[in-house]
Amino acid sequence: MEFKLNNLPRNCSNEEIIAEIKRVDSLVKKSTLTKSDFAKFSKIHSSTVIRRLGDWHKVLELAGLAHKYSGPVVSPKQREQLAKRMTDEEILIELKNVAKILTKKFITVEDVKKHSKFLGPCYY
Question: Is the confidence at residue 1, as pLDDT, over 60?
């Protein structure tokens, strides 16, 4: 009787992780590959995969499965969250800059989302 591990070793390579993602995808046989589907069949936890390779969208991209991503795309503005570290004064300056760019006296939330370098979420 041969003993076989059910999990990938902790020191497995990124290539082994990507191979595991592809293996699981072949078992799931759906148009998307979610983290919960991955968890049902995988030999490595999705949080470990994300910690090593990036967010779930990037993980699927690295495995050549970007078309199987079903969640929202996180923009660089969201990922960096620069506005969290801004002071009230810096936020006011940024809002004034957006108004100046648009040559408007009053701006909307949509204006800020579209034209601010720092403020507001931005989904693609």
Answer: no
